[in-house]
Amino acid sequence: MLLPAFLAAGAAGIGMGQMAAGAWLTRRFTAAPRPVPATRPPVTLLKPLCGLEPGLEAALETAFTLAYPTCQLVFGVQDRTDPVIPLIERLRARHPTRDVALVIDETLHGANRKVANLLNMLPAAKHDVLVMSDADIFLPPDFLDHVVAALEAPGAGLATTLYTGLEASQTPAGLAGAAQLNYTFLPGVVLARALGRQDGLGATLALTRAMLAEIGGLEAVANHLADDQVLGRLVQAKGRQVVLARTVPATIVPEARLGPLFTHELRWARTIRALVPGAYAASVLQLPLFWAALAVALSGLAPWALVLFGLCLTTRLATADLIRQALGLENPTPWAVFLLREALSVAIYVASFAGNHVAWRGQSLRADHGALTLN
To answer: What's the pLDDT score for residue 364?
Structure first.
């Protein structure tokens, strides 16, 4: 079994190399100068909403405290009984000087309910710079300055942002979900961009009204599960770039149990597999702890394999700490969480090939090249 063990060890080595490259590139990204916008045009910030979740009020309030000259806030819901409506009214009362619109409209424009919500909200938008931001995103005060500066870059058509994970609970599920975003997803995006990819990331999508019209409006992504990815591709098809703004907001990881976290991340996995099957298949190399453990098992607990596993775990912890410091995250992730995270990631990877169906906000959907089909 030595040859399979050596192959597994080689895969672990590739994974460690990716971890090191991702950590270095993340540090370089956060250390780079942050451009300021030459002008500060009026901005409409669009926040589609659906229900309550842990930390939502605190996250939404960061939109009311943005330090930007002219910013209209547009919130949208599709159900008049949605419990998020009183929350918005409380925030409006606490910030009476903010220009706020709340759109309540149940009209569906396609299979993607988030995009349908945004389409219902657009008529209320006053300004030509449109920033779409998920409900559970904590926005730093200078968020819009950096997004607008990114849109001013030569050739820019769409601005997007990285984001970190902020666990709503100190449970194994919460810590594992945040670790995935902070130490695998985020450095993976930075590494992918260094290799030439320009993905739109749904936490933040900013563009002008003219650019949106040029790509066919939000109607063009109304039947796509991965609307952020498709929007980025449409912008690039027009010869424009998807630019990464020099700001890193945080998103809530609401799951306190492993079951809901597994379901959530399986939806991501199957969507990515449908969009970029080759790259997704190769992502199995981003599981170095798994490969190192496999090398230990296949080698019959050979000393060299045990050393490799220890080196792999040490690399995981060291690169995670480098990323944590670069992003200004507070608490180190316990080492045992990374072992749980790896096991969960392996299970999700395997399950992602067992079907195309995903669960999303009470709907059963099929991921098929980014398209979304109701069942």
So the answer is: 64
- What mean pLDDT is predicted for residues 290-319? 96
Tell whether domain 34-256 is in CATH 3.40.50.720.
no
pLDDT(337) > 80? yes
Q: What amino acid is encoded at 371 in this protein?
A: A
Task: Please give the C-alpha separations between residue 25 and each of 28, 71, 96, 187, 343, in angstroms, as whole numbers.
Answer: 5, 32, 42, 7, 26
Provide CB contacts within 8 A for 180, sequence distance 6+.
165, 265, 341, 345
H or E element that contains 44? strand 43-48
Tracing tokens 């009183």 back to the chain, one arrives at 86
**pLDDT at residue 360, as a whole number:** 63
- What band does 74 get if pLDDT is binned at 50, 70 and 90? very high
pLDDT of the residue at 223:
87
Beta-carbon count within 10 A of 134 CB: 20
Please say whether the beta carbons of 232 and 242 come within 8 A: yes
pLDDT at 375: 47
Apex CA 368: angle with CA 356 and CA 200, to 5°? 115
Instruction: Give the pLDDT mean for 204-232.
Output: 93
Burial class (CB in 10 A: 0-12, 13-18, 19+), 336: exposed
Alpha-helix runs per DSSP H in the chain: 2-31, 56-64, 84-94, 113-121, 143-151, 172-180, 186-194, 209-214, 227-237, 258-275, 277-282, 288-298, 303-327, 335-352
In the prediction, which pLDDT does 361 show?
Answer: 62
89-99: average pLDDT: 96
Please state, in angstroms and rounded to a whole number, the distance separating the CA atoms of residues 315 and 307: 12
Q: Where are the domains of the chain?
A: 2-27+260-374, 34-256
Tell which residue, 176, 155, 154, 157, has the closest CA to residue 167: 176
